Please model this.
Amino acid sequence: MNERVAWLLAILVFLANYVAAADKALLVGIEKYKYPNAFQPSIDSLNLPGVHKDIIAMHLLLASIGFVQQNIRQLVDQQATEYNIKSTIQGWLSAGTGHNDRIVIYFSTHGSYVWDDDGDEGGDDRDEVLLTYDAHFEQSNQEYILQGKLLDDDMQKLLSVIPSRRVFVIVDACHSGTIDRSSGFSQEAEWKPKFADNPYFKQQDRQIDELASLNRLGITDMREWFEWDDYQKQNEGIVYFTATGEDQQAYATQEGSLFTKVIVEEALKQWSQKKSVDLTRLRDYSRTWFSSNSPGLFSPQPELFGDPILIKQGL
Model:
């Protein structure tokens, strides 16, 4: 009898550990910002159309591919502060996560940039950032400091605390500063670029070399936000899937952001056919879609980079 009880207890412990270690996802979306006019005159309003539909679509996709409801957490609008995002990744998202659990972190927001103060950006003098709900500027010593943001450096530190080696970071935003509404787009729905040009980046008694000036105009790459070249030397098991490549815009519409809409529809189709999501096929499909539906110089070309083994395994 005692032996049977011992076996029962062992099974219960195993099941408890199995349940505790599970796939998790954090979905961050900002449609209405706390300070929508913070970036004037560069941009009239930070508010983006259709982001709530991005969150719904991503939630549907994740639920369809095996993520249980209680392990999908959303931070939307006023919930998506810098503090809440960081604490959720470091706390809830990392807790109880096993080495082989799938972790998805999704952002739908604006990209922007700030001065590089630690010298880790090489020649372009700036750090790429994602804006959080509480993005605004505070004046300090005749400079305007952006508060409410996620630096590329922040993301490295946040990802380093996650035990899983199957981490997928999906970013529907861009860091390109060139906004050209005459580059071939003829859509009925308004396409709003998901980029906020930093209005205080231009003077402030700093030397901007020619490369930095070009970058401010939009010659930049989402890879810079992740600083992948340095980060891959320290970590494996992370894949990044981003809405744009160099000198391109991510777009939000009333029906949802274009990148998110395209990849969710194709991923659901793949899953229904093969019970898997091929990330390379997903990237190639989205590139083809944008080439066909948004002709012109600034047609978005989504980027997929990171651990090649994990990319091959898929989501």
About this structure: Residues 2-20 form the longest helix (19 residues).
